[in-house]
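Lecture 7, part 2: worked example. A protein chain together with phosphoenolpyruvate.
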Amino acid sequence: MADSSLLAGLTASPGITSGSAYLFKAADLSYDPCQYGGAEEEQSRLEDAFKKACEELDRIKTRLSGSLGEEYGHIFRAQMTVLEDEDFKDEIREKIALGDCRAETAIEEVYKVYSGLFAEMEGGSYNAQRLADLNDVCKRVLRNLLNLEEVTLAALPPESIVVAEELFPSDTAAMDRENIRGFATEKGGLTSHVAILAKSLSLPAAVGTPALMTSIRKNDLLFLDVRDYEKAKIYVNPDTEKRKELEEARRTYLGRQEELLTMKDLEPVTTDGHRITLSANIGSVEDLVNAQGFGAKSVGLFRTEFLFLRGGLPGEEEQYQAYAEAALKLSGGMLVIRTLDIGGDKDVKALALPKEENPFLGLRGIRLTLKYEELFRTQLKALLRASVHGDIRVMFPMISSLREFRQARALVESSSAELAERGIAHKIPPLGVMVETPAAVFLADDLCKEVSFVSMGTNDLTQYVLCVDRGNEEISSSYRPLSPAVLRAIGMTARAARKNGKWAGVCGELGGNPMAIPVLIGLGVEELSVTASALPQAVSIIRNVSLDRCREVAEKAVSLSTEEDVKEFLGLNVF
Ligand code: PEP
Ligand code: MG
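Predicted complex, written out as structure tokens:
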């Protein structure tokens, strides 16, 4: 057995699990262009690499269609078409014949020509998608030319713990959910998307663990001990005694979770009768099914961008089906659907967006959808159509001005007019905004005069109030959602909502933090939308505290000057 060691990270999603290490690292596609084997050999290498690439795609397509449903197979169909396109292959063959160059160089040059052509063409997102497919195909062939193995999350060995430098939503969108036990990454903060994904799958995850990729080898036995709300421990090849201890800890932890699960269907009402709306955060209909297993009766945040990260851009019909299915599954329960929130660390390959210097301050959320109006209108029409099937509410992300909300509302109205003209059944749902920028906090009173509700995205609100990149592990110790600055912003927003007769919710990770729940209720938050597995614990907390006590606790917490003081006070005083 290899050496045992213990690594420390940050808790991104709580739990305790074991499994074997699966190292996820993109292949290094660099090569020496001078190593040329002669035209004949290069042509034969090219044929061979195309053949292998086809076989790979075929295998993924079959596997994904079988385990995740037919619709996933289509992601790869478009790429298969490129691989089977003889004209495309002829161009590469010709480059090899004319240029005395390696097959690798030939394929790169042909790709460059195409990307130049696409850039000049009209056709927006459709061409961007085709270029993204071409890029993926060329990389696949290139990797096969270099005889490198494919590293993918789409097919994992049983009981894998995925170990990576960093994981992006595009890496995990088509992930093999059946065989995954947990995540450990070098980069990424507490609210990075791997953290959110892990929580939605109820899988333990540790982030911000330095030198992970050099400390762990393929198939090492790992124990992820992420029971502590802040500190994560990763045991690498623990000895027999430690293993027994960890197995025992896991049994106890799971026992406690089961106990909490018995509370899942109880009313979230405080001891003095104050009812809180407790909802779940989801990214797909599958997540909703999982959340219902934890007692979810409503959804306070449906992150629709995950529908866009699976490969192509879903059209109006595909989106309508997903939203309507979620609404129907909730049988009249509230379903807050957030319009596309991409940009920042969420890159939709199919849009081929330009790189930005400061993506979190750039073309993100509502700014992006207002710019790509066609993309936005497609989503709005799907949402309006789905609204006839349940209690759908639509929420706009990253709002920093009233102008943005009004522009979005105008597009909702014009989309409604278009559907009416087409004679399609639809309904304009209540419209709300996320409060996750300081500007939205300062404008909360004005916003609440026009919106139906507000929901606070405390992940971004913390990032923007404290000026701390939420995904940067170097400064994760400064990322403090319980800082009085953030709590006061939440209090201001909740007061503005109440004054205008609107409800205020919290849908960021803070809403599920056991320490924060009483404070949020005391500050006037009426709805908490949390990750599925945190629902039973939230019910238990709410049912064990009075509104009066929450108000006292909140008043004291916002009067303190540092997060350390807030945490100490809450740790000692809430339960
Ligand atoms: C938030 O910012 O708190 C939020 C809920 O949105 P996301 O994490 O998707 O940015
Ligand atoms: Mg956000």
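The chain is about 50% helix and 15% strand. Residues 67-72 have pLDDT under 50 and may be disordered. Keep this in mind for problem set question 3.
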